[in-house]
Amino acid sequence: MRKKRWYDYLWIWSILYFTLGFFNILFAWLGLIDFFLPLLFALFGGNKFFCNRLCGRGQLFAQLGGKWKCSRGKSAPKWLLSPVFRYGFLAFFMMMFCNMLFQTYLVGAGAASLREAVQLFWSFRVPWDWAYSAGTVPPWAAQFSFGLYGLMLTSLLLGLVLMVLYRPRTWCAVCPMGAMTQSVCKLRCRGGECKAQGKTLGQDTAVCD
């Protein structure tokens, strides 16, 4: 058995992030760490070390689904693991992210009012007013917090559903950040001539050294 390292406990960070955001929405800004770090590793390291070792959410799914037996452990359907779905979902996610930024801009420009709610599954607005005190930060900063927390919470819930239905870390196969870093790795490795690293964390994943 591999000796535990400090980054094997980052699943605790994932729990802490969503707990802090539940009580104070401004902590949602910390979610940007999970956006920028994977890209930095891919851009400058040419690898998916973040996804494979540092992703607290993936570790959380592994804990719940693997160690605590909350997963059926079934193989996901081929269409879910296909590149078409993976990159299609990435495109959809980026559109939703850009829409979130646009809403933040509208609030900052005074063209829209702050909505103290998080949007789940890109459709359902859930009131979240207890987590923010008016005037603490500029309205646009608060709007960004609500938007980002909604995206993060939606991906968490989707990952939990996939964890229960299939293998613990099935979310990793469709994760938008994983698809983005994979694309960066392929570009950096000159058209995708990356070294295959075998099965990583329960999914077939090609990564760059």
Strand tally: 4
Q: Compute the gyration radius: what is it? A: 18 Å
Average residue pLDDT: 90
| Largest sheet: spatial strand order | 1-2
Question: How far from one another are the termini?
Answer: 24 Å
Shape: globular
The secondary-structure element order is: HHHHHHEEHHHEE
How many DSSP helices? 9
Q: What does this molecule look like?
A:
There is one protein chain. The chain is mainly α. It contains nine helices and four strands; from the N terminus they run ααααααββαααββ. It has a two-stranded antiparallel sheet with strand order 1-2. A hairpin with a 2-residue loop joins strand 3 and strand 4. Helix 1 crosses helix 4 and helix 6 packs antiparallel against helix 7. The protein is globular and about 50 Å long. The C terminus is likely disordered.
